[in-house]
Amino acid sequence: MRRSRAFIPTTKEAPSDASLASHIFLARAGFISQVSSGLYNYMPLAKRVIKKIENVINQEMERIHAQEVELSFVTPAELWQESGRIEKFGKELLRFRDRKENLFVLGPTHEEMMVDLVRNRITSYKQLPLNLYQIKTKFRDEARPRFGLMRGREFIMKDGYSFHASAQDMDREFDTVEEAYKKILTRLGLDFRIVEADSGAIGGSGSKELMVLANSGEDTIAVCDSCEYGANIEAAKRSSRANLPDAPTAEFDKFKTPDVKSIEDLAEFFKVDPYYTVKCVAKRVIYEEDSEIVLFFLRGCDTLQEVKALNATGGLDLVDVEEEELRSLGLIPGFMGPLDQDKAKHVIDNDLKGAKNLICGANELDYHFVGVDMSVMAEAYYMDIAQVNEGDICPYCSGKLSFTKGIEVGHIFKLGTTYSAALKAEFLDENGKAQPFVMGTYGMGVSRLVAAIIEQHHDENGCIWTKESAPYLVNIMISNIKDEEQNSVGEALYEQLMASDVDVVLDDRKERFGFKMKDAELIGFPYTVIIGKELENNQVQIYDRATGEKSAVDKDEIYAQIMERVRS
Ligand code: ATP
Ligand code: MG
Asked: Is the peptide bond between 129 and the residue preceding it cis, with omega within 30 degrees of 0?
């Protein structure tokens, strides 16, 4: 592409709401332009990056025998009613009626559509397994679209779905797709980690997320310092503590604790480790139809993990409870403890199972119980509801957990038969018996990847594209457009590189050299060939955007040198 003909509207102005580097640089360098909240136009450079990513995905999918399809973006609401997701997805689903009053939904993901495509077409175990995918615009009316392409309302996803005759075969495919996804992210030049995830509303027997490591990531992941274990904090597990602090010794009793309301004050008052105190968190759990107050009990040193709490209760959301409501139940803020179980549901963290020597609220102003033994609550409902802490012990080895930030660019699920059973998509097994398909589903955020690459690869001057993702690999910079010699060397190299299928831009604009260099930095071409004054000595320069190195090269060597870098 000749830069003089290109539509690459770079600017000094960053969008006023942009805080992330990817948002700022993709907008400033003329990749994207915002239309409305969470809606973006892709300009030519972004379109090229997206195609590069798609190309890598398509190649790796081909290798694992997954086939590309493209399903309608507009999806009939009946399918969403059949699966029951029309309510679960709530306001993220954009619904509308056509001129005949038929209700439709803009596809936020395509499980129902894909099951509908396959049902009655694949009818025998002999036709399985099958893996179909598409790369397609999705629409989710996100509550808080933000960070540019990172969380849009309209975005591009690669969504894949596999169909199997058995759970074992689905497990095998899940591993195959995981390997393919690793190759895709490795080829794109990303530093990432695959972590155990919460399966959330989609359900199923297990899921993993692909996290691109970046400080700006919205997700916190817990990683072990000595084995491969990594998990989203929403799902992270731990072993129970090995070296326990000294336990307080007291007979069960009620104790006056004037004005001792917080865990810190309580630990200080009794001179015990917060490990031996009990924290009671009251939340209103919102369900599809109604809601209720639930009391969550944890060790004082732990905090409630809200996603785990939702999984434990089957709720859709957790909200705080007004003090007045607590009092009407008999709970005194600062001194809350277990109630009669018919007054409110109690959920107790697994780590408190069988615990003794505890201190907890007495539901009376200025009083706590000491010497509490959890076995008195034998009937209680124990679940893993605590968030792991940094320094906790890995569930698989004796290593320690630490936290890091990640951007979720992919999520793969062992789905099972949830959708095939709901939509009655069945095949005949070896014994001629009808069975619902066992399914896996595999999402990858294509437009989010564009942002994730820049979050991981940028500096204060702009984008630094990796080789497989760069919109153009080489930028040929003619310093002085009026210099005939510079022009002819630049033009000749441009022709040569194009003939070799290298994605190349020729910066033939009549602008100052400094301005053009800044522009090249902002856009982030991996290599810029600078044809300037040194040409008098038969020398040109190759500038490497990632390392910042400039190397002088003989003008007759330049094609070979560039090809070597591009192909390596
Ligand atoms: P998140 O927790 O970030 O909202 P999700 O769990 O809703 O993601 P999935 O339903 O698993 O996401 O979708 C698969 C992939 O699609 C995600 O891993 C992510 O890369 C991408 N994705 C999801 N929502 C968005 C969005 N609003 N904008 C851009 N990409 C998205
Ligand atoms: Mg989401």
From this structure: yes
User: Is 26 in contact with 138 (CB distance < 8 Å)?
Assistant: no
pTM (two decimals): 0.91
CB 501 within 8 A of CB 532: no
For residue 124, what pLDDT band results from cuts at 50, 70 and 90?
very high
What is the assigned CATH class of domain 474-567? alpha beta
Whether the CB of 447 sits within 6 Å of ligand 1: yes
The C-alpha torsion from 318 through 441 and 184 to 189, rounded to 10°, is 0
- Measured N-to-C along each axis, helices 44-63 and 446-456 cross at an angle, to the nearest 10 degrees, of 110
- Is 3.30.930.10 the CATH number for 49-237+402-455? yes
Q: What is the mean pLDDT of the chain?
A: 95
Domain 253-387 is of which CATH architecture?
Alpha-Beta Complex (3.90)
C-beta 212 within 6 A of ligand 1: no
Give the model's confidence band at 33: pLDDT under 50 very low, under 70 low, under 90 confident, else very high.
very high
Question: How many helical (H) and strand (E) elements, i.e. helices and strands, does the chain have?
Answer: 14, 31
Q: Separation of 210 CA from ligand 2 center, angstroms?
A: 14
Task: State the distance from the centre of ligand 2 to the C-alpha of 201, rounded, in angstroms.
Answer: 11
Confidence at 36, pLDDT banded by 50, 70, 90: very high
Sketch the domain layout of the chain as residue ranges.
Answer: 49-237+402-455, 253-387, 474-567
Q: Answer whether 48 contacts ligand 1 (Cβ < 6 A).
A: no
Query: Does the structure show a pLDDT above 70 at 204?
Result: no
- Atom 26, ligand 1: which residue's CA is nearest? 151
Nearest bound ligand to the CA of residue 411: 1
Q: Residue 378: pLDDT band by 50, 70, 90 thresholds?
A: low
